[in-house]
Amino acid sequence: MVLSEPYWDHHIPLPKLGPLHSRLVTAFVALICFINSYNGDFVFDDSEAIINNKDLNPDTPLSNIWKNDFWGSNLSSNSSHKSYRPLTVLTFRINYLLAGGLHPIGFHMLNVALHCVISVLMIDVFAILIGGLVHDGRGVKLNLSPKASFLAALFFAAHPVHTESVAGIVGRADLLCALFFQLSFLVYCKAFQGGDKKFSVLWIFSSILLCAVAMLCKEQGITVLGVNAAFDILMVCNLDIYELAHRLLSRRKSADVSDLFKGCHSFGPNDLWIDFYFLLVLLFLGGSFLLYARWRIMGTGPPSFTEVDNPASFAENVILRIVNYNYYYSLNAWLLLCPWWLCFDWSMGCVPLIKSATDWRIVWPLLLWCCLMGLVYQALCSQDSNKRRLLTLGFSRETEPVIDFIGLMSSLTFSFLAQVHYNVGKNLADRGNQSAAVKYYREAVRLHPKYVHAMNNLGNILKERNELEEAEELLSSAVHIQPDFAAAWMNLGIVQNSLKKFDKAEQSYWNAIKFRKKYPDCYYNLGRLYADLNRSIDALNAWRNATMLKPDHSLAWNNMVILLDNTGNLAQAELIGKEALKILPKDHTIMFSLANVLGKQEKYKESEGFFLNALKINPNVASCHGNLAVLYHRWGKLDLAKRHYELSLRLDPNAPGTKENYNMLKRKLEQRQRTVG
User: Fold this and answer.
1) In which ranges do the TPR repeats occur (predicted)?
2) Does 265 have pLDDT greater than 70?
């Protein structure tokens, strides 16, 4: 393909730098603009995606990242949003491993580094989009618009619209997706670097593979195939859009347009039309396979969202939904031009819905479409071929983020307060500052009376503060607004259990299980309810269900051992305890409970081993020293008993029963000394 240098390039008031210098400058600008985020903390969505995500922990099997969503929930769970981004989670895990824990500086620095790399690659992308795909006689790609591509990359590097993706650690999904999106596009372009109008099938398949990698970082990576197809039509085949529109509008036969594809490449001496269709079929089949795989991974069902997550989708009728979607598009389009207000999340009513034709904001969608139609007219009818090509290809690249603004542009909306108060409250609660968190949660509920997640979190805090009546009221409201909110049903059951409303609590637990079939924590709490009601068999069954769904559910295992111990089923308690320790070999609480069971069976030596192992793991548990002392006391090892009684009382002077047992031992020792004397 031979193209002349765009006529505007030499008018741009920038020095014409060499490839290396332009890349260094672009990387430096990207670094300077975002380096101040390096010492940020984990905030907002980082809590769920990183701090509370067990898939980052090196002790968790690496295979879990391929089974769980971005937030660490199993993809088969009803509560999963189906955001499947295993490669992004893998980079978080590597950060965790290299830093030896959750230290945010490493996470932030990698985000900044990725932004610098992406900004540098944008020079190559813009060079192709603006100046075309041109090679010299040796097959080396030429940049016919060095100033324009450099300037565009500088704008990209410094644009504030990238703030959340770079400064927010969870924005790494956007960064990685963008990186492999770029690489897929550039590799696709590399397929056409040969002469004689030939293309390389190997590079095409490589591009599709990189598209798959982009999808594994964030779902929107699939859209690069559409961009590649548009690039093939508009720049490789050099389709004349103006002439095509003219012929179609003049109602000529479709066969008349075949001469417009004279620039098409091929991979052999076959008919160019056949090769052109073959290429598009490759992209279509590759994309179809990736979408099918993604659909199967999701469990062949879409994610479930609530009105709080996506208010526009729950508008009264289709017309209002369309109007609100287009209003969101107009906001995002404006923020690309004038990003002077930004927000980290668009949901939770941050953008009030347009509910009638009298709402003045309806002007913005109309203005957006007027501008778009004007650009479409220029793309189709301009006499300037460069302008037509740039606008048309630009539409192919920019339509996707507009249409899919929820995914890629969710951070670019009004900085309204409902969501802000919720996230600040959650962050404070995660840090243990519950009093401050309550104030923010209350404000979030006041601003958004149907904000069920805020109600649930506030209800939890009130439950822990023993303000049970208000907690019950909030959680009841939450499940009334969203009847399938399983977590709120479970928490409501816990509160009702504490209020001695046992029948209601049982029903709430079963409602939670109804809406989330695999809910081990709910089975655990249901077991506690049955234990309180002395329904031992039901309690054991509930806890067994919890351990089947979550084999490492320590509390459920331990409660089974304790209940069987308390009901005199010592042999069964021993079996359950040893079964649990095969799964949780370092769980000192289960060791402690099993040691008590063995001690009651007078298996002193074995019991002693479990007590000592528990103390190796956690040496400062007063009850463990106290019960080991009782074991030695019964076993006749009085000196060891005395030592551990004293250790127990040193750790907890008010340990129940320990002081009495210690006094009994001292009397026995004194009696023994008198007898010896």
Assistant:
1) 418-451, 452-485, 486-519, 520-553, 622-655
2) no
The CA-atom distances, in angstroms, between 646 and each of 264, 564, 667 are 89, 30, 15
Give the Cα separation of 646 and 637 in Å (integer): 15
Tell me the CA distances in angstroms from 385 to 237, 239, 631, one per residue in order: 14, 10, 92
pTM reported for the whole predicted model: 0.66
Nearest-5° angle of CA 31, CA 32, CA 35?
A: 65
Give Cβ neighbours of residue 482 (< 8 Å, ≥ 6 apart). Answer: 306, 308, 452, 488
Q: Alpha-carbon distance 239 to 259, whole Å? A: 9
Q: What share of the chain is helix, strand, coil (3-state, %, to 5)?
A: 70, 0, 30
Give the integer Cα–Cα distance in Å for 211 and 472. 48
Q: How far is CA 571 from CA 286, 561, 595, 599, in A?
A: 59, 10, 13, 12
DSSP sequence for 445-506: HHH-TT-HHHHHHHHHHHHHTT-HHHHHHHHHHHHHHSTT-HHHHHHHHHHHHHTT-HHHHH
Q: Give the integer Cα–Cα distance in Å for 138 and 122.
A: 24
Contact 89, 53 (CB under 8 A): yes
What three-state secondary structure class fits 142?
A: strand
Q: Are 418 and 447 in contact (CB under 8 A)?
A: yes
Q: Please list the residues that pair with 49 across neighbouring strands.
A: none
Task: Specify the pLDDT at position 129.
Answer: 83
Of the candidates 408, 400, 413, 442, which has an alpha carbon nearest to the alpha carbon of residue 425?
Answer: 442
Closest CA to 132 of 248, 251, 27, 1: 1
Rounded Cα distance between 205 and 200, Å, is: 9
CA distance 327 to 356: 13
Q: Which residue, 36, 56, 38, 63, is CA-closest to 96?
A: 56
Tell me how far apart the alpha carbons of residues 565 and 569 are, in angstroms, rounded to a whole number.
Answer: 6
State the Cα–Cα distance between residues 73 and 54, nearest whole angstrom. Answer: 9
Tens of pLDDT, residue by residue over 221-253, are 999 998 888 888 777 776 666 666 666 666 555
pLDDT tens figures, 157-190: 999 989 888 999 999 999 999 999 999 999 998 8
- What's the average model confidence in pLDDT over 324-338? 84
> What is the pLDDT confidence band of residue 401, given thresholds at 50, 70 and 90?
very low
List Cβ<8 Å contacts ≥24 apart for 507-511.
508/479, 511/479, 511/486
Q: What is the DSSP letter of 141?
A: E
Exposure string over 41-70, b if 16+ CB within 10 A, otherwise e: ebbbbbbbbbeebebbeeebeeebbeebbb
Query: Mean pLDDT across the chain, nearest whole number?
Result: 84
Distance CA 301, CA 294 (A): 10
- Please report which confidence band the pLDDT of residue 402 belongs to, taking 50, 70 and 90 as the band edges: very low
Largest Cα–Cα distance of the chain, in whole Å? 124
Query: pLDDT-based confidence at 407, cuts 50/70/90?
Result: very low
- Beta-carbon contacts of 155 under 8 Å, excluding residues fewer than 6 positions away, are none
> Is residue 397 scored above 80 in pLDDT?
no
| Span 49-104, pLDDT tens digits | 898 888 998 888 999 999 888 888 888 776 677 889 999 999 999 999 999 889 99
- Kindly write down the DSSP assignment for every residue of 100-135, as one continuous string: TS--HHHHHHHHHHHHHHHHHHHHHHHHHHHH--EE
